[in-house]
């Protein structure tokens, strides 16, 4: 069983086991678990084979946005990442085109369509993530009747996948608190308002020209919602890359990985390789290490990682090799990933011959950016329905920014409905802009000159929006410009006659694990260094020997652990105390967790010869087929669609459209010459009978 049985941050709950079968073989799942997670926990990686070319299919998005995880459940095709396991469920692979189940004519004749529910609400919020919940809270405070719909089984969006502490403002957006805990806080608050209703496992399907929104409620019935105002907070979808082997089972996005690991406590991989050095990829690597997964390496095509430097440094200190100015060439294997090949790129981002290297891994995680899920917002505006957007649906940024933008949009929506909300402070809009800002200037790290007493060493040297360290010092010794939390914090030795007491609160709360505490009071030649550690507290004990590293991940030496401190006040951050020579004690920023040999490359690089650089996953259309049409003069994506079937599949062109545009750019075609494809409903596939008011039982397939 590939399950996580212990975790430094997440509790392992007691769950009821239920039985189901895969290809006639009995398997065990947990109650409330999706089919995809149960199958992967049982070691199943291939869920079926594509009808066009027999290519192996497995999980990709884990978000209901594609159809690569399609299986047959009791004879009915379902997306396994969205379908919950039921006792006795018979699950088979979807090999080729599934045969439609036979329908009992008598049952069909006796079916009685029910009226389609039509609901009028002042506010409809699409998306129950950080932005949607924050907006719902502001609306709830003012008694505005609001309906929040979300396609997951619980509220919180991507917050429920985030085990790390959040950056941003400690006062405005819970900075210093873990994402999983922020999700619980927001959900509890929004549910406290009687005027705010929530529909879970309910997906928006389309915004229609009559200003109604079609909603698939709990996957079982269709409803029409007519809002006075629509607020879209549907988040973002991950960008994809086209490279040979990019659709092999074992290639998927960071969201799918974090869903499996942090939500479902499934260990989907033993050896992970990451493509993309933004915050998403860097954080996913950290989450993998916490789950006991080896991270073989990370490649970033730019000269520097685009994510926060503290995230990059944290990963490097833990022992993960990071290759900047590198790209992925191929994922290798027949029916699943067994290795990955990468290469260095030149100044034009082209692979440099002779620099190819391959690494043994079973999973390649793609984290190369996000696109906003803004289709509902755009359609609402097109049809004249008053519409607002917040969070990633408005602009891609950190979740802390989504929380604050949701608060602002909630007030703006209330005001649009005629409620007196007063003036929204200009400071709120400025705070929102600060929280959305990209990483700023990186300054040389300054090591304190003092070598006596006790004091913190701040290893954060890049301007990012973050201030928790300034709020927890009992003597107010860590300072920052209050007008701009992006500026670097600094330590003041004394204030009001009081100095550092060595309380370690700043060490524990720092979201980047970028503060250590150096104490010379007992032994000036071998001071004690307190280091934050978010791994199992039992993995280290007094007397152990560990490798300590500087901010960038360079080894400083091997030292002895003096104590391991795990207290409730530190919220699952363990403080490890080591005794180190004074020559480098102040340079210590972290402890290596992963041995260097994990990241060693294979002796020879693996070259993938198969021409399977796939652009459209649903219809298995390759880059070569689309490039040929572009070179023949085609500029209309609708024509490409008609000729190749690219973008005609289950994902509704969500995955392939950005890649088709990228092919145009690579072929030198200006964006102005490209005719985009028509955007049609529906956002997701829906059984046609539901639009007629029929339930599953009316088709002779009552899943209950």
Overall description:
By secondary structure, the protein is an alpha/beta fold. The protein has 4 domains: 1-112, 2Fe-2S iron-sulphur cluster binding domain, sarcosine oxidase, alpha subunit, N-terminal domain (Ubiquitin-like (UB roll)), CATH 3.10.20; 117-236 and 373-436, FAD/NAD(P)-binding domain, CATH 3.50.50; 454-598, no CATH class; 613-704, Arc Repressor Mutant, subunit A (Orthogonal Bundle). The protein is built from 16 helices and 37 strands. The chain is globular and about 85 Å long. The relative contact order is 0.12.
Mean pLDDT: 93
Q: Based on the structure, what is the oligomeric state of the protein chains?
A: single chain
* CATH architecture classification name of the largest domain: 3-Layer(bba) Sandwich
Question: Which term fits the overall shape?
Answer: globular
Give a count of the beta strands, DSSP E runs of length 2 or more.
37
* The CATH fourth-level homologous superfamily of the largest domain: FAD/NAD(P)-binding domain
- Strand proportion: 15-25%
Helical stretch tally: 16
Rg? 26 Å
CATH topology of the largest domain: FAD/NAD(P)-binding domain
Overall SS class: alpha/beta
**According to CATH, what is the class of the largest domain?**
Alpha Beta
Major pleated sheet:
7 strands, mixed
Low-confidence stretches: 699-704
Q: Tell me the number of structural domains.
A: 4
Q: In angstroms, what separates the terminal alpha carbons?
A: 28 Å
Fraction in helix: 10-25%
């Amino acid at each position: 069983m590939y399950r996580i049985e212990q975790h430094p941050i997440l509790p392992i709950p007691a769950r009821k086991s239920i039985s189901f079968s895969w290809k006639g073989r009995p398997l065990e799942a947990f109650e409330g678990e999706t089919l995809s997670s149960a199958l992967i926990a049982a070691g199943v990686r291939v869920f079926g084979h594509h009808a066009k070319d027999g290519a192996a299919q497995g999980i990709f998005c884990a978000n209901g946005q594609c159809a690569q995880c399609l299986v047959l459940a009791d004879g009915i095709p379902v997306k396994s990442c969205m379908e919950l396991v039921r006792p006795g469920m018979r699950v088979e692979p979807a090999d080729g085109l599934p045969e439609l189940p036979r329908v009992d004519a008598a049952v069909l004749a006796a079916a009685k369509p029910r009226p389609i529910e039509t609901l009028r609400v002042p506010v409809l919020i699409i998306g129950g993530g950080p932005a949607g919940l924050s907006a719902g809270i502001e609306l709830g405070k003012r008694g505005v009747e609001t309906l929040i719909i979300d396609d997951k089984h619980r509220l919180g969006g991507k917050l429920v996948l985030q085990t790390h502490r959040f950056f941003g403002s400690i006062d405005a957006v819970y900075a210093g608190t873990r994402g999983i805990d922020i999700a619980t806080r927001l959900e509890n608050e929004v549910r406290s308002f009687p005027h705010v209703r929530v529909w879970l496992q309910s997906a928006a399907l389309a915004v229609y020209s009559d200003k109604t929104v079609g909603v698939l409620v709990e996957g079982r019935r269709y409803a029409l919602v007519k809002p006075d105002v629509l607020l879209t907070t549907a988040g973002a979808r991950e960008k994809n890359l086209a490279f040979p082997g990019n659709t092999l089972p074992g290639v998927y996005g960071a969201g799918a990985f974090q869903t499996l690991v942090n939500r479902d406590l499934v260990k989907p991989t033993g050896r992970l390789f990451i493509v993309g050095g933004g915050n998403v990829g860097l954080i996913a690597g950290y989450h993998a290490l916490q789950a006991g997964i080896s991270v073989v390496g990370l490649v970033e095509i730019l000269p520097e990682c685009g994510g926060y430097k503290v995230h990059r440094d944290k990963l490097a200190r833990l022992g993960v090799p990071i290759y900047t100015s590198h790209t992925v060439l191929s994922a290798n294997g027949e029916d699943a990933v067994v290795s990955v090949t990468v290469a260095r790129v030149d100044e034009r981002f082209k692979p440099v011959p002779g620099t190819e290297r391959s690494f043994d891994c079973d999973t390649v995680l793609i984290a190369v950016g996000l696109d906003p899920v803004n289709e509902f917002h755009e359609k609402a505006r097109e049809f004249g329905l008053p519409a607002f957007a917040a969070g990633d649906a408005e602009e891609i940024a950190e979740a802390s920014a989504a929380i604050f933008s949701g608060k602002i949009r909630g007030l703006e929506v209330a005001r649009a409905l005629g409620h007196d909300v007063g003036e929204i402070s200009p400071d709120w809009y400025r705070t929102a802009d600060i929280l959305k800002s990209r990483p700023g200037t990186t300054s040389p790290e300054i090591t304190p000159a003092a070598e006596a007493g006790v004091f913190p060493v701040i290893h954060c040297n890049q301007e990012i929006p973050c201030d928790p360290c300034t709020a927890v010092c009992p003597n107010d010794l860590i300072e920052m410009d209050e007008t701009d939390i992006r500026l670097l914090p600094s330590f003041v030795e004394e204030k009001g006659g009081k100095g550092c007491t060595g309380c370690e609160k700043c060490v524990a709360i720092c979201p980047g694990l970028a503060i250590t505490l150096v104490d010379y009071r007992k032994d000036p030649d071998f001071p004690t260094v307190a280091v934050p550690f978010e791994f199992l507290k039992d993995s280290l004990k007094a007397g152990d020997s560990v490798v300590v590293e500087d901010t960038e991940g360079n080894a400083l030496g091997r030292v002895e652990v003096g104590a391991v401190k795990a207290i409730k006040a530190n919220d699952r951050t363990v403080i490890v105390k080591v005794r180190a020579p004074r020559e480098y004690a102040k340079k210590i920023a972290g402890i290596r967790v992963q041995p260097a040999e994990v990241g060693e490359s294979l002796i020879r690089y693996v070259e993938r010869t198969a021409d399977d650089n796939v652009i459209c996953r649903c219809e298995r259309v390759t880059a070569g087929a689309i490039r040929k049409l572009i070179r023949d003069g085609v500029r209309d994506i609708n024509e490409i669609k008609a000729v190749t079937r690219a973008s005609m599949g289950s994902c509704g062109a969500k995955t392939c459209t950005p890649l088709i545009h990228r092919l145009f750019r690579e072929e030198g075609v200006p964006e102005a010459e490209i005719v985009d494809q028509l955007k049609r409903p529906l956002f997701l596939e829906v059984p046609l009978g539901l639009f007629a008011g029929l339930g599953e039982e009316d088709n002779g397939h009552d899943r209950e």
